[in-house]
Amino acid sequence: MPSAISVITLLTDFGDRDYFVASMKGVILGINPQARIVDLSHAITPHQVEEAAYLIKASYQYFPDGTVHMAVVDPGVGSARRPLLVTTSRHFFLAPDNGLLSYIFQEETGIEVRQIENKQYRLDSEGATFDGRDLFAPAAAWLTKGQSPGSYGKLIRDYVKLPLAEPEWQGSALAGHIIYVDRFGNLISNLTPFHVKDVQGRTRRSDVSIRIGGVTIDGLLRNYSQGSADAPHALINSNGQVEVFIKEGSAAETLNISRGERITLA
Amino acid sequence: MPSAISVITLLTDFGDRDYFVASMKGVILGINPQARIVDLSHAITPHQVEEAAYLIKASYQYFPDGTVHMAVVDPGVGSARRPLLVTTSRHFFLAPDNGLLSYIFQEETGIEVRQIENKQYRLDSEGATFDGRDLFAPAAAWLTKGQSPGSYGKLIRDYVKLPLAEPEWQGSALAGHIIYVDRFGNLISNLTPFHVKDVQGRTRRSDVSIRIGGVTIDGLLRNYSQGSADAPHALINSNGQVEVFIKEGSAAETLNISRGERITLA
Amino acid sequence: MPSAISVITLLTDFGDRDYFVASMKGVILGINPQARIVDLSHAITPHQVEEAAYLIKASYQYFPDGTVHMAVVDPGVGSARRPLLVTTSRHFFLAPDNGLLSYIFQEETGIEVRQIENKQYRLDSEGATFDGRDLFAPAAAWLTKGQSPGSYGKLIRDYVKLPLAEPEWQGSALAGHIIYVDRFGNLISNLTPFHVKDVQGRTRRSDVSIRIGGVTIDGLLRNYSQGSADAPHALINSNGQVEVFIKEGSAAETLNISRGERITLA
Asked: Inter-chain contact A79–C225, Cβ cutoff 8 Å?
């Protein structure tokens, strides 16, 4: 894998008002001044590993080959939970072993998962509370300097995976759930065009109806413009997932729905 | 126009907590790893094109020659509204054809406006809901790689311009309005030193008085320090516009004023 | 001091929704397109110099040699307060003369403090309200282009220092205070491992107890994982300071405590 480009993405629940994120960037630039650092997000709800897992899934594939994705949402910082280095055919991922990379494990093939053990890639510091700065940032930066994944630690197989529930048939309807609510209040589900076709095959109708929060939505639109402000609509979004929205409004607020809510396709 | 520098600015209403902005940056860096990406703002009130138009006006001229300004506040994404590439003597601008670039059209001369049609600069994707990532980001990145504006699409003349109301005389007073409220609650108007001189000429007084929200402010100060915390004051701000402020307080909150409010100079 | 790396950090109370930060970045990149700009934070509570002073203290040392730290929390912008350039053995600092760099003055030795007077490093602009863009940004950028500190202005000695209260003995207890509350609601004090040892020496006990907001906490933990969600705990944090936290909760909210609160060690 070429690493001339040296992009490092950062995903945390650290927020953007404290010194946390900048300290990590300082450490990275001290090791590799050429690294291109991109903030994925620092606004993950504190300790919400599932939310972070989805953000990585939704964006990692748009980054160039050799990108190092570093994700630190880590309620167990300083405890025995292991820090991981994951290698795929195109990218690197560094994260605590708490399920944060579950979608990567699900979507990518031929991955290698290592426990980061090499103390040479660690920063000396007084406390054990900031692995983002002291462990993950230098480990990420050294990767972009060409250190081999093998030098980080041994391969492991028993890493943590979140239970990523697949949609299930309930009669002739397929029941999924909302896996992410974005800033516009759009409701993103784990239903895909594949599931839509499946339902169409079973119902022998060319269209589908979506049921969520007591509301029924008929058919899928092509884009937000086709929707209206007075009722929820649905479409296949740009990541290939069924999404419920209200035009220039918030479906989450109007329907009073949050992550985890059931959504069915019939 | 030289493009060795390759600065790309991003202005959206996408917020900073989701995967939207990072996905666009990934696409840009995949095409041009040398691009310097600067966030102009991602905190535009959702769908508020006027707010975004002002932010571009207030900042674009401070960027180096060859900078590519990409602005995506786009309630009509996926609909028939056209994506634009605008070329001025110093900069490039990419935005949907919804008036977002109105101040550029007003302030710059010798501009060329093109409809982006060339599919080669587009990313393939499943949905039609994320032109920021799939259309504008690659189009911006290819510009910094030296692709000519002419290769993007045909020149057009019927692009959308917002109605940018000019201050109007009402007797011997000049009436403008508030065009932006900043994070400090400062009220920025469309009145300029030019208008102040005009009023001084007509009133034959060396000073002016400002009226807004039922309050009268006498004279213009030089800087915030000269103001006081117990009353609103006014000055010519660093962008050359009459601004109403309360020292270390919020004029917007105290006077209960938002964008669009009338302000008169007499 | 080598300046090949050209990292510039930005710390302001400008927020991230307006045009302020982007304008400064545009000015910097216009002077030095190679500068690596890192946002330290723009979410300082407006005009809170003490808060900004702590953020610099907590992060500056993690940046590479030659880094230029630019901090603009500046209630007195445009007034007679002086703009400063401070040189240490490793870094540069630019800030208004209002105490923002107090911790640097306290922690670093052999510093040189200059008043920025050279008009050549200033941008021409219409108002006197945006020194971040017109004075500090170009001054910072020219430093990374190799301009010597001596060319900025004369050395001064009467710069402003905030009163940084040291912990004080009250009987056999050492009383400090909370100097920062982070996004998680963790309470960071000005008590350090040095103070802990001091108290242990005086009490002849191997452990310590912490008292804050009417609550007593027994002993120091090693990391957040050892804490619990139902009571506050304390540890030495990654910056070497005694910190009070509630596991996966907010100590600030639960104890209803903010910056300035007393904390004692016994």
From this structure: yes
Contacts of C21 in chain B (CB under 8 A): 39
Residues of A with Cβ-Cβ distance to C39 under 8 angstroms = 16, 21-22
Tokens 């100079």 correspond to B265
In contact, B44 and B55? CB cutoff 8 Å = yes
Q: Does A225 touch chain B (CB under 8 A)?
A: yes
For C150, the 3-state DSSP assignment is helix
Look up the ipTM and state it: 0.93
What gap in Å lies between CA C7 and CA C121, rounded to an integer? 18
Number of domains in chain C: 2
List subunits contacting chain C, requiring 3 or more Cβ pairs under 8 Å. Answer: A, B
**Mean pLDDT, rounded, for C242-251:** 93
Asked whether residue C145 falls in the same domain as residue C252, the answer is no
Read off the pLDDT of residues B98-149 as tens digits, 9 standing for 90 and up. Answer: 999 999 999 998 899 999 999 999 998 766 789 999 999 999 999 999 999 9
A173 plus A90 within the same structural domain: no
* Closest of B78, B135, B98, B81 to residue A220, by C-alpha: B78
CA distance C124 to chain A (A): 31
Mark which of C117, C151, C185 sits at the end of a domain.
Answer: C151
> Residue B91: CB partners within 8 Å, gap ≥ 6?
B60, B63, B65, B66, B67, B68, B69
Domain carrying residue B37: 7-151
Examine the fold and report which residue of C98, C122, C151 is the final residue of a domain before the chain moves on: C151
Say whether residue A127 is in contact with chain C using an 8 A CB cutoff. Answer: yes
